[in-house]
Amino acid sequence: MSTDSEKPSVYQNFITGCHILHHHGVLDAYGHLSVRHPEKKDIFLMPRNIAPALLSSKADIVEYRVEDASPVDLDSPPGYVERFIHSEIYKKYPAVQSVIHSHAPSILPFTITGVDLRPCVHMSGFLGKHVPKFNIAEYYSEEDVRDLLIRNQRLGNHLSACFSKETNTSHHPVVLMRGHGFTVVGGGIEESVFRAIYTAENARIQTASLTLQLTATTSTTATGAHPVQSLYYLDDSEIRATTQMTQWSVMRPWNLWVHEAEANPLYTNNV
Ligand SMILES: [Zn+2]
C-alpha cells in the first residue's frame, strides 16, 4: 500500500483496478483489464490466466506485444485467449492507454435486442450519442471456433474498427458485443475503470426506466388516460458537458474505490 505522498506505480494501480472492477461486478471470474506499458508503447500488460480478483503481485502480470499479442517473455505463464481484443485496439488507437473487456449482465440485453444503449444519467454522458454494436457472426471464417470469443488478430481487428468514428479521428469509448458483453477504452486505468462501471450502471438504469415506461404506457392505454412521455436521454449539449465533468472529477470516485478494495480482505495487492 502506498502513502498519500507516493504516486502508485502502474503495477499497483493495475492490480487495484482489477479488484475494483470485481468489487463492482464489472468482472467476475472472466473479463479483463489491460494497460499500455508506461514507457514502451508497443507493449501492454495483462493478468496471467487467473480471475482478476485474485491478482496480487507483479508475477501475476504478463507483458504482451501490441503487434500480435505474443508474450514478450516466452516463459511467461499462460494468458487469456481474448488478449487480441486489447492488442488490436492499442494498435489502431495510439491514444488509448487502457482497455477493459467485461461480461457484465446488465449490458447483455442491449447486445441481443434492437434497443440501443443511450446515456440517460449525468455520469454516463461519455457513452455519446451512439454506442456501436459488434456482431461476431458477420466475421467468422471457416476455421473459427464459434464460441463468440475474440480468439485471433483478424477478429480483434474487426472489433477494434467498431470504435472508429466516421467523421473525425476520435473514437467511441464503448462497443457492445452480441451475446457476450462490452469493451471500453480510456486514457488511463482510472478513466477506463470509471467508464466500465458507469456503462454497466447506465444499462441498469435504462432497463429499469424502459420497464417502468412500458408499465405506465400499458396502464394508460388500458384506461384511456393521456399517453406517457417517452424516456428522457441526454441531448448533445448535455453529452458534451457531462463528459467534461466526469473527466475532471474521475479521481474522486477512484480514490473511494481504492479504499473499498483495500478494505476488503478478499483482495491482496503486494506491489
Ligand atoms: Zn469475453
From TrEMBL:
Domain Class II aldolase/adducin N-terminal: 12-207
Keyword field: Lyase, Metal-binding
InterPro entries membership: Aldolase_class_II_sugar_metab (IPR050197), Aldolase_II/adducin_N (IPR001303), Aldolase_II/adducin_N_sf (IPR036409)
Pfam families: Aldolase_II
TM stretches of this protein: none
Protein name, entry field: Class II aldolase and Adducin N-terminal domain-containing protein
SUPFAM superfamilies given in the database record: AraD/HMP-PK domain-like
Species of the source: Aspergillus pseudoustus
